[in-house]
Structure formats: C-alpha cells, structure tokens
Design a protein that fits this description.
CATH topology of the largest domain: Aminopeptidase
Helix content: 25-40%
Structural class: alpha/beta
Largest sheet: 6 strands, mixed
Radius of gyration: 26 Å
Shape: elongated
CATH superfamily of the largest domain: LCP protein
Length: 486
C-alpha cells in the first residue's frame, strides 16, 4: 500500500476557457425588427455618437487623448465599436459566479530585469454576492516552469513563445497555466502592467493615502530602492500621502537590505503594501474629485493606455465595471501566501545555485494545501471554510480502504494531508480530534459519516493509540467492521 497521498491530484478546479461569441449570436442581436423598435435603437446609437463628439468638442485635446487611450487599452475603436456596447456580453467565469483577473507588474523600460514579474496578484470578483478580494503570489516561489525547468515563478512571463490551447498566448499564458494547475486558481482575464503605469496613475488622481502599520516603531525604511524608482524608501507609521514616485517605491520595497527595517516578512510585506495601495488607488479614482475632473480622467487613462496590456475588450470592461461598482470598496478582502505564522503555507528554501526562494511547506512541488487554501477562501461549504486537515489510517483487513475513504472526504471538501496504515487491525472506527472546539462543523460531519464519537485523547480507546504523532487536526481510523460493511 502506498503511504503517501497527494490531495487534490484528481480534484483540480475546472478551468474556464475563453468564451467566443458566435457570429450567429452576434447577428441575432441585429435582426430586422419592426420600424419603431429599430428607430428607437438607431436614435440611441446616434445619441451616443453625438455625446462622444460633444466630449471631444468640449474637452478638445483632452477628449481626443482620452478616447485614444481607451482604444489603446482595449484594442478596439470606440467609434466603430459603439454598437457593441449594447451587446449582452457573457464574461468568462460569470456563469460560475466568480471572475478572476490576473495582474502582473514588471519594471519595464526603467529596469534591466526585463519581463520578470515582480508583482503577481489575482483580483477575484464574486458576481453573485457582490464581494471581492485580492490574492498575492510571492515572486520567489521556486517551482517547475514547463519548458524552462526549475525557476522562480516571476520568470514565467519571460516565456514569450508559450502557445497552448486554453491559455493566453505568450508569457502571461505560461503564468496562467502555473496558477491554474499548481495553485488551483482559475484565471479569466489578465493585465500586464509596467510599473510606470502605477506611478503615473497615482499622480493622475492627485496621490493616494495609505495607513502604514509597520511592526517597527520607526516605520519603513529600505535603502535598496534606487533613486529612479523613488528610493531610498522611508515612511513613518500612520496615515501618509504618497505621490506617484513614493507609491512606486513602496510597491517595490521589500526590506532585503541589512540596514532596512519594517519588513520582517520581506516579499510578503511588499505584496501586502501593493494590495493596500491598489484599493486606495481604486477608491481615489472613483471619488467625486476625480470623476468630475476631465483632466484627471484623461491623465489616468493615458497612464493606463501607455503601460498596460490586457485581453479585456471594451465591452468586457464595461460589463466588468457594472459588477465592480456593486462591491463595497471598504470591504475588499486581502489574502496572500505566507511563510510565517500558524497558517504558513510556504517555507524558505535555498536552490542548488544558492538563490533564496520559497517552496510549499509540504515539500517541493507539493501544492495540495495551497490549492485547498484557494478553495477555502472562495467556498460557501463550511467544511471547506474551516479547512481542517485530515489524516486517514487503514486499520482494516481490506487493502486501500483508507485511500477510498480519503477520496470521499476530499470530494466533500476536506483537506486530506496524509493516508497510511494504522499498524494494527481494529474492529471499530475511531476519530481523534487534535483541536477540540475549533473545527466544530468538521467534527460533527466526521462523526456523522463514520458513526462514532470523536475523542480529544488518544488514551480513550485502543484504536486511538495508533493516532498519536500526527500533526493534522483530525485522525480518522478505518476499522474492519466499517470496511466490511462498505
């Protein structure tokens, strides 16, 4: 019997492939209709065109620049595609109730690092409950990149020749494949952002306010951020106002200098600051002072148009905005993978060539727990939300019985971390609860399934003597009577 079980191997989340609206569906929207309806629709289109022309006439250069920026970002032509704004676009992920957008940032023309994505983040929008969260992926995770071998995840975008069915083309497709297959995160759209866009966008809205909460009473300091990117970074704790260059410095800083302070978790702290500033920028961009200022709006779109590549069409963006505006910006969740604390899913690692990196805590290439973490924060299933870890041991005379039960538990949403033999045969099932009063729903579910009361002491029965030494939240022992009856 194999003792090692890899949870999640057969339960990958279904990937949502890009939707292509058929020509027939497109044409159906413009079938001949009775004259009054067609006339009204034509009048609406003409009105939209007139409004756009008035925008250009009113704002002159700024209006033209704004429309040009929109065209550049969404790879279309606002005037020629205006009829498409009325189409009923179905976004990827919409039917599943969640739309995930991959954001990746690189230093671009101001750096010698080329296409390395130093920031990797997923914005996840729950279109059923009108909620959203950000999910950061540390750039230093060491893994196997198909076709490139072992490398840090930030190198995936350098694979410009990537071209596989069901994924974006180029480096962002390579990154998408890794996030979907290794991390279990379905990706629907992407935006690749030169950091210059972030600096210019912050300046366009007049700066942003963020609340620095460093564990160091002095605040934050990182001398490694160069002058071209706003360095050296030095900020006090408390609310501070940042201009574009200061925001860029904070986005890049991770305190990896011996003279730095305020960054105990290095890249983890950096991604936390990036998420914080992203929310602050969104709030400022949607404020009255920006929305009613044509110059600020124009500058904001100019910053985006010059420095962002995305597969979102204009129609997609408008539909996405209709969902996003329903989300309370003050309640956007923030998640990330950490290598410290009680919920750490990563651990430090030194590569064969001496690089400092991160790998899954369960071992190199073992992404089962990380996949389960994404499921945990997106599921409405209380078993999945609790995220209890389960060890399943076979104490029956039927080979592979523990594996069969482990598969059932995984399908029910449990995080099965180990499957093996109990070492002795026992007649009855047994459940050891190593975290009493913590995962109460999971405990009740296990008791109901295996028809036995759990115990918080391994001394309470002979069967539970085999359950000692396991660090999982629960240890389930499969007895002979249960195996024979099933």
């Amino acid at each position: 019997m194999n003792n090692i079980y890899k949870p999640g191997d057969n339960t990958l989340l279904n990937r949502t492939l890009p939707n292509n609206r058929s020509t027939q569906n497109f044409n159906n929207q413009f079938k001949k209709a009775p004259r009054p309806k067609k006339s009204r629709k034509k009048k609406v289109l003409i009105t939209i065109m007139i409004i756009l022309i008035l925008v250009v006439a009113t704002f002159g250069y700024f209006g033209a620049k704004l429309i040009g920026s929109i065209d550049k970002v969404f790879h279309g032509n606002l005037f020629s595609d205006v009829s498409g704004l009325f189409s009923n676009v179905t976004l990827r992920g919409q039917n599943q109730g969640r739309i995930n957008i991959l954001l990746a940032g690189y230093q671009g023309k101001n750096s010698d690092e080329g296409a390395l994505t130093d920031s990797i983040m997923v914005i996840s929008l729950d279109v059923k409950n009108n909620t959203a969260f950000t999910y950061s992926i540390p750039r230093d995770i060491w893994l196997n990149i198909p076709g490139m071998g072992h490398n840090k995840i930030n190198a995936a975008n350098t694979n410009a020749n990537f071209n596989q069915r069901g994924y974006f083309s180029g480096g962002m497709g390579q990154l998408q494949q890794i996030l979907e297959e290794d991390f279990g995160i379905p990706i629907d759209y992407y935006a690749l952002i030169d950091y210059t866009a972030f600096e210019d966008a912050v300046n366009a809205v007049g700066g942003i306010n963020v609340n620095i909460q460093s564990p160091d009473p002095r605040g934050l300091y990182d001398p490694n951020v160069d002058k071209a990117h706003g360095g050296p970074l030095k900020l006090p704790n408390g609310e501070v106002h940042l201009d574009g260059l200061q925001a860029l410095a904070l986005a890049l800083a991770r305190g990896d200098s011996p003279y730095a302070y305020g960054f105990p978790l290095s890249d983890i702290n950096r991604t936390q600051h990036q998420r914080q500033m992203l929310v602050a920028l969104e709030q400022k961009a949607l404020s009255v002072g920006v929305l009613t200022n044509p110059i600020k709006i124009t500058n904001l779109f100019s910053a985006i148009g010059a420095n962002i590549k995305t597969d979102l069409s204009l129609q997609d963006a408008i539909k996405l905005a209709s969902y996003a505006k329903k989300v309370n910006l003050n309640n956007i969740g923030s998640y990330g993978l950490s290598y410290s604390g009680s919920n750490a899913l990563l651990t430090t690692y030194v590569t064969s060539n001496g690089q400092d990196a991160l790998i899954p805590k369960s071992g190199f290439g073992q992404f089962g727990q990380i996949k389960h973490y994404y499921q945990q924060i997106t599921s409405s299933n209380p078993v999945v939300q609790e995220g209890a870890s389960i060890t399943v041991l076979n104490a029956s005379n039927i080979s592979d019985m523990a594996h069969l039960e482990a598969n059932k538990l995984t399908a029910a949403g449990f995080n099965v971390t180990y499957v093996g033999n109990a070492g002795s045969y026992y007649n009855q099932n047994a459940i050891l609860d190593n975290v009493p009063n913590k995962d109460t729903y999971s405990n009740g579910y296990l008791e109901k399934i295996f028809k036995v009361n759990s115990s918080s002491s391994s001394n309470s029965s002979t069967e539970l003597s085999s359950a000692t030494g396991y660090s999982s939240d629960f240890v389930v022992i499969i007895g002979q009577n249960w195996a024979n009856s099933n």
